[in-house]
Amino acid sequence: MKWNVAAALTVVALTGGILYGAAAFLPSTTGLSIAEVRTTVLTTLVAVGVISGRHALGRRLRHWSGS
Prior knowledge:
Keywords: Membrane, Transmembrane, Transmembrane helix. The chain crosses the membrane at residues 37-57. The protein is mainly alpha-helical. The chain has one domain (2-65). Helices cover 85% and strands 0% of the residues. The chain is elongated, with a radius of gyration of 16 Å. The model has no long low-confidence stretch (mean pLDDT 72).
């Protein structure tokens, strides 16, 4: 289980790093500023992390409670 969490965090970190770096090139195609693109990327990554974390926590709680 620990390896799954580490692998997931690594994938999220690498994806986030790539998207955060790519944000410097996106404004010319989207019309947004670099700050707006990076804020959107970071907000999306945090939202995905929160949703994934709540889902995993819910599964663990159901497992521990026996339901």
